[in-house]
Amino acid sequence: MLHYAAFIGTRYSFSRKRNRFTSVIAVVSMLGMVLGVASLITVLAVMNGFAGELRSRILSLVPHGYVAHRDGGIPDWQALAATLEAQPGVIAVSPFITDKVILSSPYNQRGAVLTAIDPVLEGQVSEIPAALVSGSLESLGEPGFNVVLGASLARMLRVQAGDFLEVTVPRLTVTPLGVFPRSKRLRVTGIFEVGAQPDAYQAYVSLDSGQKLLGARDTVAGLQLKTDDLFSAPRVIAALQAALPPDYEARDWSQTQGSLFQAVKMEKVMVSLLLLSVVAVAAFNIVSTLVMSVAEKRRDIAVLRTMGARAAGIMVVFVAHGLALAAVGISVGAALGVGLALNISRLTALTERLLGVKLFDPSVYFISELPSDLQWADVAAVVLASLSLSLLATLYPAWRATRIAPAEVLRYE
């Protein structure tokens, strides 16, 4: 029974002997499905690409974890660092001191985050050395007070390697003339660029310079950790917290940066739901197509019923009819969406060349092209969701078809 019903339903979908208006509505339904599925797959790939770019760029400067004292600095940090390095999963440890400061050049002033680091150890826990576009991280250890700036911060201050600027820290200096904010002249010895927000506010000095500027003396604010795997860091840091004394606190990157990535994930979900509504509208356009098909095929339904077809068979006919229309639209939309997702960067570059404009200015957006990361799980989810919505849309018209009384239809035939 189901075999013949599915065959007849598929024949209905692609028959040329149909009412022209019904055919137009069916084509419009399929086109809506094509656009909805294609746009949803493409946007999901772009959102995945943005999340990946954000993760790789920001986490290139952010260590996998931190250990800090709850009541202040860590005086004997070398001994604690040696203990932490011996723990399973920890491969590198580096000290740091950080505070908010004001950087002043002859042209401008900007707030910044000044982080004091060990130039040698820092390269083991972050990707700062690889992100330098001029100078070197080792230059921080040279005599004098030196600083490495983010590229956007350097542009806003209008300085480059070799220039000098003034730093004002939130500490007071008492002199015979009164109390003044502590300031120092720094020489710019390097500029880094990761293509993310830290370029606009981050500055680095050596640990020795930071202790003098920020009044930390022989202490550090905390220790940065690198684990053997980024995504195992929460588990490793949680194990460290259990082993540390109660007055120490251990935090991993998911706690310090997790809200940002949760926001990106939530944005992906909301965009997916909004675009899925387009697919839902296209799916429920199938209702109109099937309602008109039921009205058009009343005599055929009556004939089938008199030949012994059951109500379930009639229902399967129109469910198959609607799903065949939806399957064509979903298949074409999925193919189009995959093609767009795989070639969105090249299409963006082609559009920029044809229009002679730069759609994504790196100095504004931190990216130069649309990133794309096509995940087949997303494609499968979109296809299954679209098929489910289409199936739901076919149920009511198919049920209405089973309510047609053969005697009423054939009375005057």
Summarize the structure.
The protein is 56% helix and 20% strand. It is an alpha+beta fold.
Could you walk me through the main structural features you see in this protein, from its secondary elements to its overall organization?
With 413 residues, this protein is α+β, with helices and mostly antiparallel strands. Helix content is 56%, strand content 20%. It is built from 15 helices and ten strands. Strands 2-3-8-5-7-6 form a six-stranded mixed beta barrel, surrounded by four helices. Strand 6 and strand 7 (178-192) form a beta hairpin. The protein starts with a helix and ends with a helix. The model has no long low-confidence stretch (mean pLDDT 81).
Helix-strand topology string:
HHEHEEHHEEHEEEHEHEHHHHHHH
Report the oligomer.
single chain
Overall helicity: 55-70%
State mean pLDDT (0 to 100 scale).
81
